[in-house]
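The following block was generated as part of the benchmark described in Methods. Ligand: zinc ion.
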Amino acid sequence: MWICPVRGCQLELRPRPRRWVCESDHSFDVAREGYVNLLQPQDRRAKAPGDGREVVAARRRLHERGITRGLFEAVLELADARRGDRIAEAGCGEGFYVGTLAGQTGAHGAGVDISTPAIEAAARRYPECSWAVANADRMLPLPTGSLDLALSITGRRPLGEFYRVLRPGGGLLAGVPGPEDLIELRGVGKDRRESVLAELGAGFACVETKRVTTHVRLDASAVGDLRLAIYRPAGVIEPGEVTLSLDLMLLRRRDAMLET
Ligand SMILES: [Zn+2]
């Protein structure tokens, strides 16, 4: 499932008891929770990069309350993942989207995030999927042409790497916050779809878009979690109804060879 993250190596990693090893003998320990840390020293700008433990726990509680259920249903519908498909999410956080999608469809799921606490939580909650700590901006530690579907749900979009790891014709499901997302807190945001589609270049074609908007009722403790989750610990959010909105775009990886 993983390839070696050492610069210039990128050979496939093979599972050994408690570690993954490439043919050049680069070795990566498997954590007790079952994930592997593929972060290289040059990937680390901070000592503990990415979301911290408190933020990860708050996001997990929000998902467990079901407030993102409606968003997930739209992801499920558009993703069209099937049993046996290989799917992976870049910037997966605590694993909710790819973990749930894999669980409901029988696809093989994998997730990459730069935050160790997030991957640790993902591996605990969705042990049937594969999880790695890595810097998706630099590389996705997945073999070339190995994926049927890649996910980026309000996460990073390393398009060159998505192109490399997807099989020809594979899908990339990209999600960005819709203009009404958390409108109670932020006011109307901008429509981000144009800028995502403008990034695509020749490697991907957009086949379908979908906007999902849901209204969820939050009590005081859920409001506290939401503040942490969006990095506004001091922001004023009253308990009550909150709008969540996601703009989803299903993109198809083009195959240059087939087009000529
Ligand atoms: Zn290696």
